[in-house]
Amino acid sequence: MSSFSDWRVMPAVALLAALGLAGCEQKQQQDHAASKAPKEVEAIIVSAESFTLVDELPGRIEPVRVAQVRARVAGIVLSRNFEEGADVKAGAVLFQIDPAPFKAALSKAQGDLARTQATLFETQATVK
Hints:
Elements: H1 2-36, E1 77-80, E2 95-97, H2 100-127
Antiparallel strand pairs: 1-2
Family: Belongs to the membrane fusion protein (MFP) (TC 8.A.1) family.
Domain Multidrug resistance protein MdtA-like barrel-sandwich hybrid: 65-104
Organism: Pseudomonas syringae pv. pisi str. 1704B
């Protein structure tokens, strides 16, 4: 029985193998024919143009010299008369400071001076 089934299976296997090989050969011929056909491509005309190359990189800069702008006296700043980073000249008014406390201090000092002068005058009168 074994020889009978081998005899019937062998021709079937041979037929399938022949069909498979024929199919592969046909596909190779189609691929070969397709590779001979010209392929579509895009073409552009090259011309010289000027362009600016820009490369932005993160970083920090540090000045060689640092100038601190400060008021020379204490007080309430009413206005700042310059812009940060702008050039300023010697003698330019940079800040306006509230004059009221300074006027009060001047009046007090003038009063103390007048009282001391009066005491001096009185003491000189007593000595004579």
